[in-house]
Design brief:
By secondary structure, this protein is mostly helical. The protein is built from 21 helices and no strands. Helices cover 78% and strands 0% of the residues.
Length: 426
Amino acid sequence: MSILILIFVLLLVIGLPIAFVLGGTSLFYFFFLSKVPMEMIGQKLYAGIDNFVLLAIPFFILAGELMNRSKITDALIEFSRILVGKIPGALAQVNIVASVFFAGITGAGVADTAALGSILIPAMTKEGYTPEYSAAVTCTSSVIGPIIPPSIVMIIYATCTGESVGALFAAGFIPGLMIALALMIMCFYYAIKQHHPRRTEKLTAKFVVTTLRKSIVALLCPIILIVGIFSGYFTPTEAAAVACLYAIIAGMFILKTLTLKDIWESLKISVVAGSVILLLISMAALFAQVLSIERVPAAIATGILAFTQNKYVFLLIMNGVLLIAGMLLDAGVNVMLIAPILLPVAIRLGITPLHFALVLLVNLNIGLVTPPMGVCLFAAAPIARVSFERVAKASLPFIAAEFVALLIMTYVPELILFVPRLLGYL
């Protein structure tokens, strides 16, 4: 294992994409350190993505692209202005609330950062917020995207562990709203301290009605998906396809802002992005086979159980490990590598699998904004036209607020389990 760790770190340091780091390390093991038949490599690569649920990933990516090109993002922002525009630090609050609504469409944090950031970061800067503060709010609120359903990383987790996608989706509502509330409190604090602007003009009934009429098209999409999945009318994969169909109908025939060229461009982007994720899953499955052959999960589980039999101590240790892991690797990769190792330990300590899943997923999604590998930070910095370092520094108080919310849901499991229990998943 020491040789494998060295190879893994070396490939990572020289700048190879993480999929090829996982694949290269695995191939080195099979060629030089193992007597496993070579035919097994191809079989494992294929088996890693031979799952109907994974079809939801490219479909949700496509739905997000279509919705963004249909200008549905604009409608969500205007609706958010009506809801929280009077609160101190109005645009920052709008940013967070818009992320909650957008989370019900895309399921990806980076998509949230790019779509909302391109509109709200310049708008916030124009109103007097510093560019780095605007980018920090956008980045940290994008964490909500993969927590509130639908969620691509939840689909990956379900594939790795066999957990119900519907149960994971149900469990994500309250944690996502808790993260949003923590960020809104932080924005309120800064608004009072730094005298951030808020909306002062009164809203006319005509403006509210017009905005609601435009927003209903955007808001219906997550409602259709959620009701459809939880009522059993369609599976999460079918829901993703329905989201694409709805986006095309809404964009072309209702809003009339989506063109055939937009659809073609969205298809190209979703094919590339979906292929990258599926390649990553396939390579991670191969690497997981290496770990299994070397009995690494069993060794780690034995070590943890020898150190502590207290589930609360285990959860604290897990949060610390995941914090470090989230700083270094993508959330999807961490899910595929860490979840199958820690889940059996959690179950032996009496932790509900669904509670464990959401604590792990929320923690790793916070990794989207933790330096040095926070991909949302990299996405927001060019939009704000400031350095990565400045955005990262401005994000720290908001990341701290997210960790407070994480600790609360870690030690009050009912906050995670309430909705799944209500819907009959527990």
